[in-house]
Amino acid sequence: MSELQNFIERLLIISKNDEINKQDVMNLLTDDLQNELPINIYFEEKLDLYKALESVESQILKRASMKYKTTTEIAEALNVNQSTISKKLKKYNIKLRNVKL
C-alpha cells in the first residue's frame, strides 16, 4: 500500500497540470524501470525541505557507492570534489563496497 501511495505522490509532483494523465503514468513507470534504485521521498503532514534534500542526497550517495569503487570515481560521476564525497559518506555513514580481486 505504501508503494502505491508513494507512486501517486510522485505522479502529483511530476504532473504538469491539475490532472494525472496516462502519459504521466507511463513516464514515471519508464523512469522507474530505467533506474536501478528509484529515489523516494516520503511525505508526512508537513514536508521539511532540508530533510527531504538530505534523504535524496543520501539515496544518491548509496546508489553511487554501490556502483563505484572509490570516492574519486563517485566524485567524478556526480561532478563534485572528492573531499565533498568523503564528508557526505561519513555524514550519512555510507561505506564503499569492498571489492576483492
TrEMBL record:
Pfam families reported for this sequence: HTH_50
Chain segments annotated as coiled-coil in the UniProt record: none
The organism's place on the tree of life at top rank: Bacteria
Domain TyrR-like helix-turn-helix, first and last residues per copy: 50-94
InterPro entries: Homeodomain-like_sf, HTH_TyrR
GO terms assigned for molecular function: DNA binding
Protein name: TyrR-like helix-turn-helix domain-containing protein
Taxonomic classification: Bacteria, Bacillati, Bacillota, Bacilli, Bacillales
